[in-house]
């Protein structure tokens, strides 16, 4: 309880509590994933994300693909038919329940609840592509980096990582930054967007051991991909 005798809102880094509450109903889950409850709009945006991944990262038919923070399976629903196995990981059991329902037609889908800080249930060297989209903006920087390190661990040599965030250095990113600055510190919502710079994301991939690091600036987005070098002994 705080001074006004109201229950304190959860800290941003208490991801499980924050996101389980935000996904308490299907309607709230969909809205927090992509700002809409409309299935046609979700389908359209899922297709666009998969097109982007195919064009900029590349996915083979037999690839084991893992999404960090998969939500309701907006992307997985479009990607599962195009890869060998799709593993959706999320901190919120509610998100995963909705994803299971939406993706029930596929037999190559696995949904895994994670702690919010690591990919512990996933074994080393078992994945070809890890991607994380529309999630880093909700994480603290240390936890962004922990997922990059974890991606390195679970990827096979030659495997790829893709991450994105709102680009602080874009005009739209700066507007979001300024808008969110208007919240009084004690009133900032726990899931509020915090932007990245290309240097921040590149540094994470470099420090975790990735090579072939490529960055794209795409409107409001900064996206970074890298590859785990063949011959990496991890
Ligand atoms: C804005 S939604 C995006 C969902 C999905 N990536 C998409 O693009 O449709 C953010 C997702 O990240 C999940 N999430 C938030 N913090 C997380 C964390 N620390 N670890 C794993 N997932 C997290 C939330 O539960 C939610 O499903």
Comma- or semicolon-separated keywords:
Rossmann fold; 234 residues; 7 strands; single chain; binds S-adenosylmethionine; alpha/beta
Protein described:
This protein has 234 residues and is an alpha/beta fold. 36% of the residues lie in helices and 21% in strands. The chain has helices at residues 15-22, 26-34, 39-56, 76-79, 93-102, 141-154, 171-181, 198-208, and strands at 64-68, 85-90, 109-113, 127-132, 155-166, 211-218, 221-227. Helix 6 (141-154) links the parallel strand 4 and strand 5 (155-166). Helix 6 (141-154) crosses helix 8 (198-208). The chain has a single domain (15-227), classed as Vaccinia Virus protein VP39 (Rossmann fold). A 7-stranded mixed beta sheet has the order 3-2-1-4-5-7-6, sandwiched between helices. The longest helix has 18 residues, at 39-56. S-adenosylmethionine binds at residues 15, 19, 32-34, 68-71, 74-75, 90-92, 95, 114, 116, 133-135, 138-139, 143. Residues 15, 19, 32-34, 68-71, 74-75, 90-92, 95, 114, 116, 133-135, 138-139, 143 line the site of S-adenosylmethionine (SAM).
